[in-house]
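Summary for the steering committee. One of the milestones for this cycle was to obtain a three-dimensional model of the protein with magnesium ion bound, which we needed before selecting residues for the alanine scan. The sequence and ligand used are listed below.
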Amino acid sequence: MKRIQLIERAGGVIVGAAVGDALGAPFEFGPAGAFSARFPSPDAGGEMCGGGGWDPGEATDDTQMAVLVGESLLERGGLDLPDIFTRFQRWAAAEPKDIGLQTEDVLTNGMPWDLAAAIHFQVNLRAAGNGSLMRASTSAVHFAAAGRGATMDAARRIAALTHGDRAAWEGTAIFHELVRVTLEDADPLAALPDLLRHHVHPDHSARYATVLAADWHPDRATEFNGAVWPCLGSAVWALRTTDGFEEALRAAIDLGGDTDTVAAVTGGLAGAYYGLDAIPARWTEQLHVPLPGFGERVLRLDDLLDLIARLTR
Ligand SMILES: [Mg+2]
């Protein structure tokens, strides 16, 4: 692995995730192979195409919620779970273009922050969507310096705000730890066996070991990739089986299904691995993140870079 400055890797996580989100959004719920059918040549340009209700470069709920988490961490001087929940609620009430069904229910059911997700899970019994994994870029960057235990703990607690199923917590915690390892210039794929054996809840480690194994392929997924396991597995597969940021994102979006989130998670991991410089400028130029519920604010690349600098300070 190349040595890259920490800020370059941290920037890669957050901008990479945002770029993946915006790039994948127009292909959401589409068939496999749709991206490369439309853009057969890898560097021909025009891929930030918009469509399906999205403007070219417009980031969706994945990035919007990640920004809300990041801003809470900065403004509250650390992890303030009720504050994050309140920001999520304010955002959800402003009717964002995209919001996960489960996330919407938890944020609008009127329950207090520390019960809403748990009660939703008790009633529905299914809460292992990828909706907490998709928004983890900012918290992963912020808590990396605090070490493995602290970053995985923070991941679980932020995930639990909207997802009552521990499977979602563990997937988000694995993502946090893979980012932390990469920011230390270590190979995240090499870290997986020990991570799965010793640091993932024993009730969930076997299922993650399956989807994160070197020989796993997204074709072997037993659920839609809107679920947390195949989503994380597909992102790690895309990182493992490609040789660059752009190639990893193309592979992720070409899987079809929940393309914005699979590409956002892939973009976070690949952005950490290859660094900010590896993200094509033609993809960041049009990138923008509207924040419904927070005035008319729309963050652009410079705003994200400023957020990243503050999150890593
Ligand atoms: Mg989305």
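Key point for the committee: The chain has 16 helices and two strands.
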